[in-house]
């Protein structure tokens, strides 16, 4: 059992760059303990939003890089982001989070993430450990902070698995992503960050994150955006919790038949691509483990087919595997495929995300996302669940009639971790005022109908 203020393992100590030299921290008036004893967190009763408003700036700005992250540093980061979101224009973010501190955090996190396998196995869950699974959060920083305060911060006995889609649409994708990276660096074996389809160049150029970064970091915006994309490449694709729960942003994926090349060069392989649905079959965990995840964007073919499926696919009530024509990428899979996958690998649950209330509105036969989750398939070996953790989504909506959806997270408890306990929650209200970073009135509601041609050329 380690103290939360001590470095959790060597991952945080091997990659610590030197502290920033040009932006020394301002002298602050007290120890962090003094500041946080009077601050509003981590009270779990702070759901009314009133005590989230901090009229005076946090004690420790600008943030400096400590070399090794501590719980106090992360709590201060939360405080600074929350305060800045309500009191500073977006372009002032660098005055509280200097680009050099951004660089250190992203570099350190990227090194940790790139070492993880495509499918992380979370097995070190002891008797006293619970696992919190979180779906799409889409830059809704204040709702993420509420979730952490209600479910409890990550610690020795509380593991977090995030299913991707940290950025785009919401106005605080950068702060949200950086906060999650900070937790990852601080507790690399207690916080797992999987990739969503929005952690890509294509999505972030259409749905707001790129423009958000440019607005916040100005002249350093391109640099900050490039570093974020590099970090996205390191995000693993899936997790297996306690050997019985599979999680991924989209879900299941196809097998990619491999035949030896005629010219038997060393390790040269030819991957047969056949878009006919009757040639589709479920992929194996071994294929997933060998997939190449470092390419962020379509065209999704060859070695990219599996990541494309894992990030973009959706469940269906129609049996079998078929191309996901609505999205133009990924697959649709039926209850029979859920059963096949669960049975083959001895799993009890699949927890995927990827569909919010807007997407579900267009999916007759599947449940709506009012409560932040749906149980889509109930089969002999277990269940398939969709989990969406952005309440009152999307933040910017063209119609007056809002979805008013709740977000949800799932807690998995020992000893088997295979019985989901659902926690639905309302959006933090009021949200700070913010301007959208994409043309939400003209950009399509969900991720459907992708312009594949533009993806190929961009
Ligand atoms: Mn998604």
Automatic annotation (TrEMBL):
GO terms for molecular function: metal ion binding; protein serine/threonine phosphatase activity. One of its GO terms (biological process) is blue light signaling pathway. Pfam families: Metallophos (PF00149). Residues 1-15, 28-48 have a biased composition (Low complexity). Its EC number is 3.1.3.16. It comes from the Eukaryota. Its cofactor is Mn(2+). Keywords: Hydrolase, Manganese, Metal-binding. InterPro entries: Calcineurin-like_PHP, Metallo-depent_PP-like, MPP_PP7, PPP_phosphatase, Ser/Thr-sp_prot-phosphatase. One of its GO terms (cellular component) is nucleus. It catalyses: O-phospho-L-threonyl-[protein] + H2O = L-threonyl-[protein] + phosphate. Gene3D superfamilies: 3.60.21.10. Residues 16-27 have a biased composition (Pro residues). Residues 1-55 are annotated as: Disordered. It is an enzyme of class 3 (hydrolase). Belongs to the PPP phosphatase family. This is Serine/threonine-protein phosphatase.
């Amino acid at each position: 059992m380690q103290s939360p203020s001590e470095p959790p393992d060597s991952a945080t100590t091997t990659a610590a760059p030197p502290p920033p030299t040009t932006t020394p921290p301002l002298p602050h008036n007290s120890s962090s303990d003094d500041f946080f004893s009077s601050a509003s967190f981590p009270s779990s009763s702070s759901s009314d939003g009133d005590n989230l408003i901090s009229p005076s700036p946090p004690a420790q700005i600008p943030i400096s890089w400590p070399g090794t992250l501590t719980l106090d540093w992360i709590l201060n980061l939360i405080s600074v982001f929350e305060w800045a979101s309500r009191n500073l224009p977006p372009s002032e973010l660098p005055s509280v989070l200097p680009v050099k501190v951004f660089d250190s955090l992203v570099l350190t996190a990227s090194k940790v993430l790139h070492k993880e396998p495509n499918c992380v196995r979370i097995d070190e869950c002891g008797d006293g450990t619970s696992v919190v699974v979180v779906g799409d959060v889409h830059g809704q920083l204040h709702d993420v902070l509420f979730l952490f305060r209600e479910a409890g911060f990550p610690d020795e006995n509380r593991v977090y698995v995030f299913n991707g889609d940290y950025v785009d649409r919401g106005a605080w994708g950068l702060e949200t992503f950086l906060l999650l990276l900070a937790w990852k660096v601080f507790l690399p074996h207690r916080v797992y960050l999987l990739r969503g389809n929005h952690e890509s160049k294509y999505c972030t150029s259409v749905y707001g994150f790129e423009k958000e970064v440019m607005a916040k970091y100005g002249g350093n915006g391109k640099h900050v955006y490039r570093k974020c994309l590099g970090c996205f490449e390191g995000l693993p694709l899936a997790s297996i919790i306690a050997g019985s729960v599979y999680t991924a942003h989209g879900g299941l994926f196809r097998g990619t038949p491999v035949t030896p090349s005629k010219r038997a060069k060393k390790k040269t392989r030819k991957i047969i691509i056949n878009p006919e649905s009757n040639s589709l079959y479920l992929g194996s965990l071994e294929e997933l483990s060998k997939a190449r995840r470092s390419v962020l964007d379509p065209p999704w073919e060859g070695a990219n087919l599996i990541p494309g499926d894992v990030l973009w696919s959706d469940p269906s009530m129609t049996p079998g595997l078929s191309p996901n024509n609505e999205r133009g990428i990924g697959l649709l899979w039926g209850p029979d495929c859920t059963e096949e996958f669960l049975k083959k690998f001895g799993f009890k649950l699949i927890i995927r995300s990827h569909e919010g209330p807007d997407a579900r509105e267009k999916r007759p036969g599947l449940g709506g996302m009012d409560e932040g989750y749906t149980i889509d398939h109930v089969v002999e070996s277990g269940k398939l669940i969709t989990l969406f953790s952005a309440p009152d989504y999307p933040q910017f909506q063209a119609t007056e009639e809002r979805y008013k959806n709740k977000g949800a997270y799932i807690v998995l408890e020992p000893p088997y971790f295979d019985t989901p306990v659902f926690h639905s929650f309302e959006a933090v209200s009021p949200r700070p005022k913010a301007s959208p970073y994409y043309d939400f009135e003209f950009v399509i509601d969900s991720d459907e109908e992708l312009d594949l041609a533009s993806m190929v050329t961009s």
